Amino acid sequence: QSALTQPASVSGSPGQSITISCSGTSNDVGSFNLVSWYQHHPDKGPKLIIFEVSERPSGVSSRFSGSKSGNTASLTISGLQAEDEADYYCCSYAVGSTLVFGGGTKLTVL
Amino acid sequence: QVQLQESGPGLVKPSQTLSLTCTVSGGSITSGPYYVTWIRQPAGKGLEYIGRIYTTGSTNYNPSLKSRVTISVDTSKKQFSLRLTSVTAADTAVYFCARAPGGFHYYFDYWGQGKLVTVSS
Fold it and tell me: Are B62 and B71 in contact (CB under 8 A)?
């Protein structure tokens, strides 16, 4: 099972919006609405920010939103803030009842 | 508030077995269809799914690691264990345990802080 494909890095200025893509195949992202997104700050455990493509856990800012089209899922962060600077990972359920992560995207807030 | 904590040796010799424990506190792991997953992150790389175990003992492993991985659970101690045999330098990583709600929900709502394990002689 290959890792999902994410851009290595994205950047944006405070207040702007950015989108991180997560490209998979018909064996994972394309066949299941079971994509989740995680925010990871160094030396901490990752934090769930989106589950099941577009659902937001309680307590997560509405500035975070998720979507999916075909084999590609996307995470959008609007109104960028300095504290959003972190690594972001997507994860999808896949054929064979396994799970596959993306390679991660480093978000820099300029 | 559910909390997870990884523990175990931080240094393992090549060809030996890596053993880690994930202890869950702040909630019951037997009151729902939860499962605990082990995930690792080599330095400078992304996250990798290792495998998961339900409180019933049912398991699922990453096919690429399946021949070397065993995950077990001791519900009385609220502990989930990972064993990875025949380790090499490529197994050097931060190892995380994470809880999922279970059922047909494949996301991780609680994570441990992670445990760095270095494979070196």
Answer: no
Six-digit token string for B5: 């904590």
Q: Which residues of B touch A93 (CB under 8 A)?
A: 106
Q: What are the tens digits of pLDDT across the range A15-68?
A: 999 999 999 999 999 999 999 999 999 889 999 999 999 999 999 999 999 999
User: Whose CA is closest to B78, among B28, B31, B38?
Assistant: B28
- B20: which 2 tokens? 């880690």
CA-nearest residue of chain B to A105?
B46
Cβ A3–B98 below 8 Å, yes or no? Answer: no
Buried b or exposed e, range A36-67, using 16+ CB within 10 angstroms:
bbbbbeeeebbbbbbbbbbebeeebeeebbbe
